[in-house]
TrEMBL record:
One of its GO terms (molecular function) is 2-oxopent-4-enoate hydratase activity. The keyword Lyase applies. This is 4-oxalocrotonate decarboxylase. It comes from the Bacteria. Coiled coil: none annotated. Residues 92-260 form the Fumarylacetoacetase-like C-terminal domain. GO terms for cellular component: cytoplasm. InterPro entries: 4-oxalocrotonate_decarboxylase, Fumarylacetoacetase-like_C, Fumarylacetoacetase_C_sf, Hydratase-Decarb/MhpD_sf.
């Protein structure tokens, strides 16, 4: 690690304040060009500790930048991993207060809910599917704290991979009953289809993203506990939303989930 603990805590406070006060900032590597990957995840961990200290509960994890469309859109070449707290959860059909966000975008995702712990190294699609209770459609709302979504991978990891809100809904189905590679998704904004894709857009199979997450956590001596919800990553490019927009995600065999921005 290159950063002192004091700098890690200060950067975590800065990024979390930007999140809670809905204001943007320049990317942190501008001021700390030598920070390394361990520093980036340490800042993310410090943000998690701040939330837990205020009573939030970790409910799961997210894999981000897992499709070529997203990597191309953001100019990076590797996925990133973050945590989800209960504060981010929005009920299906619910409303999101746009004034609490900076510049939200939505992503169509497949969420996995685990029934057994998953601990890397060595996790693969098979171990993930065996440990999955069910999959369910999910809309992730990302809201990078970085001005104009301009960042590099270390800055984005420190910022908990732009995590902001998520909505799950539709049908729950055991993953063995589906071919998650060929499952089709349609994302609608105000009744108009705006993005389409199939599950294979996420690293060839959405369960690959969950396996990568488990292996990354294993490297740090951690695991995905049973009962976790995991967002496996956007199947299409992220779509910008504004006050007044209604978003619906339709997933083949899994029904639909919706949310409004007020
Ligand atoms: O969930 C995602 O794929 C987003 C990861 C962070 C990058 C971004 O803000 O677009
Ligand atoms: Mg996402």
């Amino acid at each position: 690690m290159k950063l002192a603990q004091e700098a890690i805590e200060r950067l975590a406070e800065h990024l979390e304040r930007c999140e809670l006060e809905a204001r943007d900032t320049t990317k942190i590597t501008d001021d700390y060009p030598d920070m390394d990957w361990e520093d980036a995840y340490a800042i993310q961990e410090a943000i998690k500790r701040r939330k837990l200290a205020r009573g939030a509960r970790v409910v799961g994890f997210k894999a981000g930048l897992t499709s070529h469309a997203k990597m191309r859109q953001m100019g990076v070449s590797t996925p990133c991993f973050g945590f989800l707290v209960d504060d981010y959860a929005v009920p299906e059909g619910g409303e999101i207060d746009t004034s609490a966000l900076i510049h939200p975008k939505v992503e169509p995702e497949i969420a996995f809910v685990t029934k057994a712990p998953l601990k890397g190294p060595g996790c693969h699609i098979g171990t993930v599917l065996a440990a999955t209770d069910f999959v369910i459609p999910a809309i992730e709302v990302i809201d990078s704290r970085y001005r104009d979504f301009k960042f590099d991978l270390k800055s984005v990891i420190a910022d908990n991979c732009s995590s902001s809100r998520f909505v799950v809904g539709g049908r729950i189905v055991p993953p063995q009953e589906l071919d998650l590679r060929t499952i089709g998704v349609v994302l609608e904004k105000n009744g108009e289809p705006v993005a389409f894709g199939a599950g294979a857009a996420v690293l060839g199979h959405p369960a690959s993203a969950v396996a990568m997450l488990a292996n990354e956590l294993g490297r740090r001596g951690e695991e995905i506990p049973a009962g976790s919800l995991i967002l496996s990553g956007g199947i299409t490019e992220a779509v910008s939303v504004q006050k007044g927009d209604a978003i619906t995600l339709r997933v083949q065999h899994l029904g639909s989930v919706g949310v409004r921005f007020r």
